[in-house]
Amino acid sequence: MFKETTSANPPILAPGILATAETCVETRTRQETASVLFVDQSGQLGGAEFSLMPLAATWDARREVLLLSDGPFRERLESLGVPVSLACEASVSGIRKDTLRLHWLGALPGIVRQVRAIARHAEHFDILFLNTQKALVLGALGKPLHRKPIVWHLHDIMSSEHFGPLQRFVVRWLTRHAVDHVIANSRASADSLVALARCAPENVPVVHNGVDLDEFRCESAPDMAGLRGQFGLPENVYLAGLFGRLAPWKGQHIALEALARVPDLHLVLVGSALFGEQEYVKSLHAQAARLGVQDRLIFAGFRDDMPAWMKAVDVILHTSTEPEPFGRVIIEGMAAGRPVIAAAAGGVTEILRHRTNGWLVPPRDVTALADAIEVLRAAPEMANRLAAQALDDVAQRFSVGAYLDQMKRVIAGTSG
Ligand code: UDP
Ligand code: GLC
């Protein structure tokens, strides 16, 4: 459980500092024996799910993933040999963070069933690992039933821009009274929870996501023209790519505005509306028509082969309008060896340094984004230099190996 604190300046905990030589030996032993039930609300493939995948796949002892919705995430886990079970309730899956107040009462019977289902599953494991907001609420509410240590992987910035008052109240209460351990995906996410729950900063260690560098290196990939030909992308143009689900706060509309301002620029949007944001997708098409940029814009939909798609573009854009909790797509772009222009807020500023390993612009600033694209297009040597530094940095700081080591140490340290 969490101690309350009034500390205004939480210390920055570098990933990995939790392990001294002594605790390392101790946790390694526990790590091999502690069984874990991982719970995730989504069957879709988002950043939180991509970060859980290698952890569940390589966990040394018995483990299972319990999903609260079915979808391609289940298939991916199963293909990695991870046992998966489902506890779906349509009424609960239908609750969205923006409609929480209206829907949760009607979903109460479903909520009770899911709390019980998670608790029943958890009884057979040593640790309950909750990977998403709904998993946190449903898993932690059942603590009196299962009485297992709870680890919550925080992938969100718990600010009022991202969440309503009810969700924030519930998270604050559960953090103080039911959660045993939190791991935050960035300092920005950690700080937001410390501010919300007034918990001790040292109780919210940060472990940044990591990427599989070999997967992104793809030595055997064909040249840029070959890749573009293979994907039906225009070959002899300057092409920007924006990778991620289509959702208002991911800011694809900002990229479209910038596209209209930069002559001859082409843009590919890779990703789909994973959580029902169909109205936003329609609005993007209408905006493209209004701006007259349809012939320079490609909607590629959700793609499985991100390394190749990233290598097929000249520059990668990140345009979130709200502070990004971490931003896996940024470290992936760096690993793919492409220059990244990103909105400077939240976890992004823990990854990118302006003009050193990327280019930062203020969020929602269309002019700054358009200017940045022009600058990198006009100075390919500088763009290459940024990309090379980014590749070095991602290998040093954001490898999947380092991520797994740190996560496993923290999780194992909670079971005793
Ligand atoms: N992604 C993918 N195919 C797509 C679009 C996105 O596989 O068509 C992946 C992307 O590679 C990244 C994840 O989805 O690993 C998005 O994670 P991020 O943390 O950037 O954003 P969020 O989880 O907030 O959507
Ligand atoms: C969430 C966040 C994203 C982060 C991912 C992995 O989906 O929105 O910023 O990269 O989790 O931690």
From TrEMBL:
Gene3D superfamilies, A to Z: Glycogen Phosphorylase B (3.40.50.2000)
Keyword Coiled coil appears in the UniProt entry: no
Presence of the UniProt keyword Transport in the record: no
Assigned keywords, A-Z: Glycosyltransferase, Transferase
Domain Glycosyltransferase subfamily 4-like N-terminal: residue ranges: 46-214
CDD domains: GT4_PimA-like (cd03801)
InterPro entries: Glyco_trans_1, Glyco_trans_4-like_N
Pfam family, any one: Glyco_transf_4
Residue stretches making up the Glycosyl transferase family domain: 228-390
Coiled coil start-end: none
UniProt-recorded name of the protein: Glycosyltransferase involved in cell wall biosynthesis
Origin species: Paraburkholderia unamae
